[in-house]
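Figure 2 data, in text form.
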Amino acid sequence: MDDAAFQTENIAADQLKAFIERIERLEEEKAGIAGDIKDVYAEAKGNGFDVKVIRKIISLRKRDYSERQEEEAILELYMQALGMQ
Protein backbone atom coordinates (compact mmCIF):
# COMPACT_ATOMS: atom_id res chain seq x y z
CA MET A 1 0.00 0.00 0.00
CA ASP A 2 1.43 3.37 -0.93
CA ASP A 3 1.61 6.37 1.41
CA ALA A 4 -1.25 8.23 -0.31
CA ALA A 5 -3.65 5.29 0.12
CA PHE A 6 -2.57 4.87 3.76
CA GLN A 7 -3.13 8.59 4.45
CA THR A 8 -6.55 8.44 2.79
CA GLU A 9 -7.54 5.48 4.97
CA ASN A 10 -6.30 7.30 8.08
CA ILE A 11 -8.25 10.42 7.16
CA ALA A 12 -11.41 8.39 6.53
CA ALA A 13 -10.94 6.48 9.79
CA ASP A 14 -10.38 9.73 11.72
CA GLN A 15 -13.45 11.29 10.14
CA LEU A 16 -15.55 8.20 10.92
CA LYS A 17 -14.34 8.21 14.52
CA ALA A 18 -15.23 11.91 14.84
CA PHE A 19 -18.75 11.28 13.51
CA ILE A 20 -19.27 8.38 15.90
CA GLU A 21 -18.02 10.38 18.88
CA ARG A 22 -20.31 13.31 18.00
CA ILE A 23 -23.29 10.98 17.70
CA GLU A 24 -22.44 9.36 21.04
CA ARG A 25 -22.29 12.77 22.75
CA LEU A 26 -25.62 13.78 21.22
CA GLU A 27 -27.19 10.49 22.31
CA GLU A 28 -26.02 11.19 25.87
CA GLU A 29 -27.52 14.68 25.70
CA LYS A 30 -30.74 13.26 24.27
CA ALA A 31 -30.99 10.79 27.16
CA GLY A 32 -30.49 13.64 29.62
CA ILE A 33 -33.15 15.75 27.94
CA ALA A 34 -35.55 12.78 27.86
CA GLY A 35 -35.03 12.42 31.60
CA ASP A 36 -35.75 16.12 32.09
CA ILE A 37 -38.95 15.84 30.06
CA LYS A 38 -40.03 12.82 32.12
CA ASP A 39 -39.45 14.87 35.28
CA VAL A 40 -41.62 17.72 33.97
CA TYR A 41 -44.44 15.29 33.17
CA ALA A 42 -44.13 13.82 36.69
CA GLU A 43 -44.26 17.33 38.16
CA ALA A 44 -47.35 18.17 36.10
CA LYS A 45 -49.01 14.93 37.25
CA GLY A 46 -48.10 15.74 40.84
CA ASN A 47 -49.90 19.05 40.42
CA GLY A 48 -53.08 17.31 39.28
CA PHE A 49 -52.74 17.60 35.50
CA ASP A 50 -53.62 14.73 33.18
CA VAL A 51 -50.33 13.77 31.54
CA LYS A 52 -52.03 11.84 28.73
CA VAL A 53 -53.90 14.99 27.72
CA ILE A 54 -50.74 17.11 27.99
CA ARG A 55 -48.96 14.69 25.65
CA LYS A 56 -51.86 14.94 23.19
CA ILE A 57 -51.77 18.75 23.29
CA ILE A 58 -48.02 18.76 22.64
CA SER A 59 -48.56 16.40 19.70
CA LEU A 60 -51.29 18.64 18.29
CA ARG A 61 -49.22 21.81 18.65
CA LYS A 62 -46.47 20.28 16.51
CA ARG A 63 -48.84 19.94 13.58
CA ASP A 64 -50.18 22.46 11.11
CA TYR A 65 -53.57 24.01 11.93
CA SER A 66 -55.20 22.85 8.68
CA GLU A 67 -53.90 19.31 9.20
CA ARG A 68 -55.41 19.26 12.69
CA GLN A 69 -58.73 20.62 11.40
CA GLU A 70 -58.88 17.93 8.72
CA GLU A 71 -58.16 15.17 11.21
CA GLU A 72 -60.75 16.51 13.66
CA ALA A 73 -63.39 16.66 10.90
CA ILE A 74 -62.68 13.06 9.89
CA LEU A 75 -62.71 11.95 13.53
CA GLU A 76 -66.09 13.63 14.05
CA LEU A 77 -67.47 12.02 10.89
CA TYR A 78 -66.30 8.55 11.97
CA MET A 79 -67.70 9.02 15.46
CA GLN A 80 -71.07 10.06 14.01
CA ALA A 81 -71.06 7.02 11.73
CA LEU A 82 -70.51 4.83 14.80
CA GLY A 83 -73.22 6.59 16.80
CA MET A 84 -70.74 7.90 19.33
CA GLN A 85 -72.08 11.49 19.36
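Caption note: The chain has a mean pLDDT of 93.
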